[in-house]
Amino acid sequence: MKAGGLRLYAYLYLLFLYAPIILLPLFAFNDGTIIAFPLNGFTTKWFDELWTIPALHQAVKNSLIIAISSAVFSTMLGIFAARAITRYDFPGKAAMSGLIMLPLVLPEVIVAVSLLVVLLAMGIPLAFWTVIFGHVLICTPYAVAILSSAFSSLDRSLEEAAIDLGETRMSTFRLVTLPLVAPGIVSSLLIGFTISLDEFIIAYFLTGSEPTLPVYIFSQFRFPAKVPVVMALGTILVILSVVLLTLAEMFRRRGVRRRGGVDTGGFL
């Protein structure tokens, strides 16, 4: 009975959490501009209209550039930080690890406003790279968490064997370590890309004259006639996010199996 009650609670919680997302595609295919029941009929015209909006295309391009750059830079920083955390002991290690993970617990609006104040005080204009900087700050803790798990479950004897056979530490890292943690790297890239693509608050404060996709979507809610188009776009983004997170989890689990470690849980 207790297990059944917990299962029922979990189902109700998931329903409450994802009910708005479930309603999103319903209104995206609704033949009407008013978001309300009853539905007027089935249509795909809102999806067709997405191809006719140049501003939307530019926003998608901006977001893709920023998301790819943020994912790559945060993963690179995550590799270095995770390697240091899992392999070496040095003064202030715990404090530095906590500082790296701090953006996970800080409200994003505080981070965004702080970055904006610093950039304006330094006279730095807002542009693509300022948004990338903010997104790297947010994505790096996720990369460190994923890659720390990958490095910590790696058998050190493999690296020691490579060094004993004449490889340098750098070539051992490149030829042995990186291939073994490659699934974790791919998972980090996918998670970073997804987070950056969907992130709104930092992009809203730090973007220049060319908005990202979430900022563009927010601006369209001022026009009631554009809401169905936003619903159609949101449906595509939800599907894309689910696909990317699923791929990231698949690569994470593949990495655990390759290293012979124990799966302690992931994203799915």
TrEMBL record:
Belongs to the binding-protein-dependent transport system permease family. CysTW subfamily. It is found in: Cell membrane. InterPro entries: Bact_Polyamine_Transport, MetI-like, MetI-like_sf. This is Spermidine/putrescine ABC transporter. SUPFAM superfamilies: MetI-like. The keyword Lipoprotein does not apply. GO terms for cellular component: plasma membrane. The chain crosses the membrane at residues 12-29, 64-86, 98-121, 127-154, 175-207, 227-248. It comes from the Bacteria. Gene3D superfamilies: MetI-like (1.10.3720.10). One of its GO terms (biological process) is transmembrane transport. It is a multi-pass membrane protein. Keywords: Cell membrane, Membrane, Transmembrane, Transmembrane helix, Transport.
